[in-house]
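Private note to self, pasted from the team thread so I don't lose it. Backbone tokens:
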């Protein structure tokens, strides 16, 4: 078996720079390298509903937003299978079979599930009768659903951010359990992280640990140049850097984290010829004498340079929204065919292929009529 890539995003809003450096940019590079047998990229609407069940319109409306972001970033439907999670019914069957291989205790130890339980005030040993505040079963079993997403196409490689490492490890455990119980049908996936530490968890513009739609600290891929400029101007920097001549801190400073993630040496020749590279800027800022606004102006130019071709492609696809839905429809049909084949192999291994097993039928007939 060759290399099969799978990755996706929840449709809870437009995608932002954190998505881009964390996974999207890498997906496009992988696509263009062509060093794989097949690549699947999906919109995880079922997973989005696990904590948006009371707002299905939000998920519905953002399907097209995520699709536009995918296409505008350069994902090519001729090279990549783009699909919508809810349109692959086999995923639900696979999830059900996997649920018998995972204990409640193991799910409770999953960091993503554990964090949500604490957030909802539903800690270990507590009981919550209020369904509005309790943890939905769908969210609790989120890691199992994600394992089904990965395994339906026998993905070997999953390019995601580092926050997904616990999910990938749980998927590997499920695969090992299935294969040892029923037979070697499924494949253990490997995680593919961004090479740069700055790209693995891009902070929000407010200095928070992670860029998040819910915190309103995002720069979106679809933001205009003016919106990017405004957001960069308002970015958190070193609070101790009160005067230009004061030494400044580079570590933990979002402006420099973004520059680590996005700028290249060639950007200095074009946008800031006073310096040859980012290290020179960092050294100057650290010893004092360099203001935050100059750094922010440079960052704005770099970001808008990267985002301009993305905006142009988005405007192109926005002119044919029915065509974008057709891309998703065709991709979903192709993904269903792959999922059906994997599910068939799983059922054979689990010995629940009753109507396809001629030897079983004949054997039972002989038992009762022999």
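Design output:
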């Amino acid at each position: 078996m060759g290399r099969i890539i799978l990755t996706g995003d929840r449709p809870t809003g437009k995608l932002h720079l954190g998505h881009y450096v964390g996974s999207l940019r890498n997906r496009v590079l992988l696509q263009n390298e062509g060093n794989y047998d097949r690549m699947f990229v999906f919109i995880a609407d079922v997973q989005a509903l696990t904590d948006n069940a009371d707002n299905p319109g939000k998920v519905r409306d953002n399907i097209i937003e995520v699709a536009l972001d995918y296409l505008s970033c350069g994902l090519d439907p001729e090279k990549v299978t783009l699909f919508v999670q809810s349109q692959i019914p086999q995923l639900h069957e696979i999830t059900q079979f996997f649920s018998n291989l995972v204990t409640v205790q193991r799910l409770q130890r999953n960091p993503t599930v554990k964090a949500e339980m604490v957030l909802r005030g539903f800690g270990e040993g507590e009981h919550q009768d209020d369904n509005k505040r309790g943890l939905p079963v769908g969210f609790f079993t989120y890691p199992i659903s994600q394992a089904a997403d990965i395994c339906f196409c026998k993905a070997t490689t999953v390019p995601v951010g580092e926050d997904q490492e616990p999910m990938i490890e749980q998927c590997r455990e499920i695969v090992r359990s299935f294969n040892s119980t029923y037979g070697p049908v499924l494949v253990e996936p490997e995680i593919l992280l961004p090479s740069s530490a700055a790209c693995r968890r891009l902070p929000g513009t407010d200095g928070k640990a992670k860029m998040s739609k819910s915190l309103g600290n995002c720069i979106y891929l679809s933001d205009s140049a003016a919106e990017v400029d405004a957001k960069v101007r308002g970015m958190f920097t070193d609070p101790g850097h009160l005067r230009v001549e004061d030494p400044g801190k580079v570590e933990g400073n979002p402006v420099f984290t973004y520059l680590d993630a996005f700028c290249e040496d060639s950007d200095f020749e074009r946008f800031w010829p006073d310096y040859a590279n980012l290290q020179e800027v960092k050294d100057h800022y650290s010893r004092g004498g360099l203001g935050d606004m100059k750094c922010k102006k440079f960052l704005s130019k770099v970001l808008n340079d990267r985002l301009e071709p993305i905006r142009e492609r988005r405007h192109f696809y926005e002119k044919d929204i029915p065509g974008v839905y057709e891309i998703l429809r065709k991709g979903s049909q192709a993904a269903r065919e792959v999922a059906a084949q994997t599910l068939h192999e799983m059922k054979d291994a689990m010995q629940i292929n009753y109507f396809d097993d001629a030897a079983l039928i004949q054997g039972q007939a002989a038992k009762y009529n022999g």
